[in-house]
Design a protein that fits this description.
The protein has 1 helix and 2 strands; from the N terminus they run ββα. It has a domain of about 35 residues. The protein has a two-stranded antiparallel sheet. It has about 60 residues and is an alpha+beta fold.
Length: about 60
């Protein structure tokens, strides 16, 4: 297991990387103001956590 910082994970667009509080207009919805990508906030958060974990793994190989 690799620990990652969960802050803003459901506010960061998986398509363009734009992060903003306004990207999450409701509890369930994420809508990127920069590129228009829309997805469920939990899905967006999971993608962000996965990517952050992969970056950390590649920086610190086991």
């Amino acid at each position: 297991m690799i620990a990652v910082d969960p802050r803003n994970t459901s506010r960061t667009c998986p398509e363009c990387g734009h992060t903003a509080k306004e990207n999450r207009p409701t509890e369930e919805k994420c809508h990127c103001l920069a590129c228009g990508h829309t997805a469920h906030a939990d899905t967006v958060g999971a993608i962000s956590v996965l990517r952050a974990g992969l970056v950390r793994r590649n920086v610190n190989p086991a």
